Amino acid sequence: MTLFYPATGTVTLTGDDLSIEDVVRVARRGAHVEVSSEALGRVRRARDVVDRVLERGDLVYGMNTGVGSLSRYRIPFEGLEQFSVRLVTRHTTHQGVQLGREVVRAMMVTRANGMAKGGVGVRAELIQAFIDALNAGVHPVVRTGGSVGQADLAEMAEIGQVLIGRGEADYRGRRMPGGEALRTAGLEPIRLKAKEGLALISANGVTMGHGSLILADVAELLDAFDVTAALSLEAFGGNLSTIHPEAARMRPHPGQARAADRLRELLAGSYLWRPGAARNLQDPLSFRCVPQTHGACYDAHAYSRGTMEVELNSASDNPLVLLDDQSIISVGNFDVVALAVAFDLLRVALAQVVHLANERIQKHLWSQFSGLPTGLAARDGDEGLRPLGYTSASLAAEARVLANPVSLDYRGQIAEGFEDHASMAPLGVRKTEELLSIARRTAALELTVATRAIDLRGDPPLGAGTALARDIAREFATTDPEERWPDVDGLTGAIESGRLVARVAAVIGPLEPVSTTGDAVGPGEAG
Q1: Which of 488 and 57 is assigned the larger pLDDT?
Q2: pLDDT (average), residues 195-205
Q3: How far apart are the first and last CA of the chain?
Q4: Based on the structure, what is the number of domains in the chain?
Q5: b vs e for 28-62, b when ≥16 Cβ sit within 10 Å of the residue's Cβ?
Q6: How far apart are CA 314 and CA 334, in angstroms?
Q7: Cα maximum dimension of the chain
Q8: pLDDT digits (tens, 9 = 90+) for 407-443
Q9: Statement to judge: residues 192 and 225 lie in one domain
Q10: Is the pLDDT of residue 455 over 90?
Q11: In terms of residue numbers, what domain contains 423?
């Protein structure tokens, strides 16, 4: 089989150690996927349990009964395979916005790893069907069908449709019927057995797949905000006592220490380290509290990352196959309220970072605080960059709205009142992505304004990292806003593409993520 683009390495699924970085490698970089022999052995043993329970005729939810409020109806033995197919086809709603290819790939690899855990009770052939489609570049067309976060049924059903030869798929840039896509790629549809229909749809693929990609993006954005804040300190003539190592040692939050360390690295060699360089004994809080606020977001991200990686390597199915007990039990492992709460926390923390950046932007533009011309204008009476202050304030307001928790927003009852609780996790992930977009633009605005202020201060010697950031910003900024308006869109794109962080990291080195225990996570595990 030929990959849809050249693969970069191999990700081996074990059901136990899939990382966010692994998901990114598969989803965005085309990494080849395989399953370990140990995991396949476990999967086969779990399927043996399913077969024995079927032979005994035990009643098992979703295997030989209906689902949800229809679980009171028993499915005859001769209709089990047809019932599995019907579960997939009837849960496809055929509506909503189409998800991007990388999100679909992330959904597929997270589900395959969940099946490799062994608690699902599917055949090894079904896991292989996921992997073959991934490696061949057959990407189901998946639309957001309105998941409430208790398994993304409609979205997962669209993936299942393609694996059984139905639905629609994208193959090498062409949209076609799912069966045709499989045949063109040299693959065959899979014939579902008992319990496998429910296994295909009852998974939180959107929450885990899309969420993993968003967590990777947030990590990079936080690095970018360290850069913009450091350049703002130089642009403002700030007091660097706020990043003294002892401040973090006396208040040992891991994130605060990380942020302060990074700011010192970025500012190494800066003119601000000279005695008397600071303009104020104490700067406004938006400058003084950067380590604390950025640190809180680092810690929130570490918690979210840890929660996600537990979920990625969990058996989140109902009913659950127990190998030791040789039984199948009904559970609520599909409930991802822990992830919904984690993303709510992360958005609140990220909105605080955006708020501080907005306040620094306003202080640069206000002569009373900056000691520079109003709006950082070249001539008295000019507007300068004052209009960017309005843009920044509007973005900060929108960030606050998006930060509102969504995990408490479920009020309805569905399935005849049988399903009276929902996490709303997919909505939380989507709102985090929207907030990411706003935050990137805010970072671009801060770089633009800070670079202009640096010019007006006579271009003093900058730090090892901030000098690089200033050089990148100058490609999109301007020495006179009245002559040429800065290209904020272009600079936002440089941040989103990772160019800014990569350029800086090439000089001062990358930062390792903070773990939930306060220890740095190894570079190979970075999200």
Answers
A1: 488
A2: 87
A3: 29
A4: 2
A5: eebbbbebeeebbebbeebbebbeebbeeeeebbb
A6: 10
A7: 88
A8: 887 655 555 555 566 677 888 999 999 999 999 999 9
A9: no
A10: yes
A11: 210-411+419-518
Beta bridge partners of 514: 520
Higher-scoring residue by pLDDT: 90, 189 = 189
Given a contact cutoff of 8 angstroms between Cβ atoms, the answer to whether 18 and 113 are in contact is: yes
Closest-CA residue to 376 (of 443, 444, 446): 446
| Residue type (1 letter), 11 | V
User: Is residue 155 a contact partner of residue 147, using CB atoms and an 8 Å limit?
Assistant: yes
- Give backbone dihedrals phi and psi of 7, rounded to 5 degrees, phi first: -75, 155
pLDDT over 70 at 68, yes or no: no
**Nearest 10 degrees: Cα torsion 286, 289, 295, 297:** -30
Give the model's pLDDT for residue 118.
Answer: 86
Domain boundary among 150, 180, 203: 203
Structure tokens at 189: 């549809």
| CB count in 10 Å sphere of residue 66 | 15
Strand spans (E) along 397-523: none
Query: Burial level of 391, CB count in 10 A (0-12/13-18/19+)?
Result: middle
Question: Is 40 part of any domain?
Answer: yes
Q: How far is CA 358 from CA 232, 286, 405, 444, 508, in A?
A: 11, 9, 22, 11, 26
Last residue in a domain, options 177, 203, 229? 203
Q: Is residue 523 part of a domain?
A: no
Closest Cα partner for 30 from 4, 48, 1, 53?
4
Confidence of residue 1 (pLDDT cuts 50, 70, 90): very low
**Residue 224 near residue 441, CB atoms below 8 Å:** no
